[in-house]
Amino acid sequence: MKPVQTPELDALDRAESLIAVIPDYPQPGILFRDIMPLLADAAALRATVEALIAPFAGQYDVVAGIEARGFLLAGAAAMVEGVGLIPIRKAGKLPRPAASVSYALEYGTAEIEAHDDLPHGARVLLLDDVLATGGTIAAARELVERLGGSVAGTAILLELDGLGGRDIAGSDIHAVFHA
Fold first, then answer.
1. Can you give the CATH number for the domain in which 168 is found?
2. Model confidence pLDDT, tens digit, residues 21-41
3. Catalytic residues
């Protein structure tokens, strides 16, 4: 892998400022974090991707992105690093799922799946956009292990502090931004 440069602070500040807060979406009382304006800004996107992967340089063979916005970040990270991408999808979206993991949400349950395209023993950098309650990340880690890989690290664009996500997902998560 080629060396990852540390992102410029100004570009990261700009990236953070581009995360829009949408009140009462998708339901009343929720503050939705819209990262699409950040993704539309090339300098902000590059700085964000560099900040996501920098702590893990040389420690992984493939990037796994969690549906749906995690795909966008993981795709960019895989291209920057010159490694492959494994999508982790919601149940029922893949034509040949090899493994799945169910997990609890604050309002029910969900399930994620992945193909068996992960080379056995691969070191995986797991990426997602937001860490809230931690169930999705914990399930993704379990899924990677079921497929014969090992999680080399987990990076999140935005951690919602105070929701206990690290209690479920693990304390060793790298978050670029906090809210």
1. 3.40.50.2020
2. 999 998 899 899 999 999 999
3. 69, 106
Residue at 13: amino acid letter: D
- Expressed as residue numbers, the domain containing 139 is 55-178
- Spatial separation of the C-alpha atoms in residues 49 and 75, rounded to whole Å: 10
How much of the chain exceeds pLDDT 70, in percent?
Answer: 94
CA angle 94, 111, 53 (to 5 degrees): 80
Residue 59 has pLDDT above 90, yes or no: yes
pLDDT single digits (tens) 71-97? 999 999 999 999 999 999 999 999 987
Exposure string (b/e) for 136-174, b if CB count within 10 Å is 16 or more? Answer: bbbbbbbbbeebebebbbbbbbbbbeeeebbebbeeebb
Contact 20, 34 (CB under 8 A): yes
In a domain, 68, yes or no: yes
In a domain, 108, yes or no: yes
Residue 6 confidence (pLDDT) = 56
